[in-house]
Amino acid sequence: MHKLLTFNNEKLLRQALTHRSYVNENPGEGKHNERLEFLGDAILNFISGQYLYCRYPEKGEDELTRLRSALVEEKQLAKFALEIGIELRMRLGKGTIRDGGFQNPNLLSSTFEAVIGAYYLDHNCDVDTVRAIVEPLFDSASKHIVETRSNVDSKNQLQEWVQREVTLNPPKYVTEHIGGPSHAPEFIAKVLIDGKEYGEGKGRSKKDAEKAAAEDALAKLKKRGLLT
């Protein structure tokens, strides 16, 4: 059994695993987990922010904020819940079970948050104890999240600069297939801001070409002293 499901106070764990639908069908079974979910959400946001701040000292506020959002979003927390076996322990009402509750990302993620909140209380409100258990889960996900975010980050960064400094209209990418064999095609992309070309890039896919065009635009902006 995962340490997050090992409690001194079993009643607290039971509450963390109890959905409102179960209490509605079984009024004598105690409290549901929504207050614990609120607490767990706050704790996860704090721990994930500190974790990313220390792990990626080269990244700025905007990128850290996006990474934190990805690390504690519903789908990712649902994966954590499955990883530690929460779906096998959730207490759900019969109707919720019929609706696929044990596989529902929203229920899995909210229950995971509730378990985090309960674990914090069960261990004398010691956030370091929670951190020691949660950070290994973050380790298993953060590399993939960073790699995924890096594929779009240059485009995001350019869009943020454009909407901050030039226009609320997002950059426009014009991408063409320019050749290469069928198994390794080559694309060229140009990025336009208010109809003016700011960058150009090549890649083996449209996505790669657009990323290269955004990187080219960012490099030119930095060279001109318009972006730090």
UniProtKB/TrEMBL annotation:
Its EC number is 3.1.26.3. Coiled coil: none annotated. Its main location: cytoplasm. Gene3D superfamilies: 3.30.160.20, Ribonuclease III domain (1.10.1520.10). Its cofactor is Mg(2+). GO terms for molecular function: ribonuclease III activity. Keywords: Cytoplasm, Endonuclease, Hydrolase, Magnesium, Metal-binding, mRNA processing, Nuclease, RNA-binding, rRNA processing, rRNA-binding, tRNA processing. It comes from the Bacteria. Residues 153-223 form the DRBM domain. Residues 5-124 form the RNase III domain. Homodimer. Digests double-stranded RNA. Involved in the processing of primary rRNA transcript to yield the immediate precursors to the large and small rRNAs (23S and 16S). Processes some mRNAs, and tRNAs when they are encoded in the rRNA operon. Processes pre-crRNA and tracrRNA of type II CRISPR loci if present in the organism. Belongs to the ribonuclease III family. NCBIfam families: RNaseIII (TIGR02191). This is Ribonuclease 3.
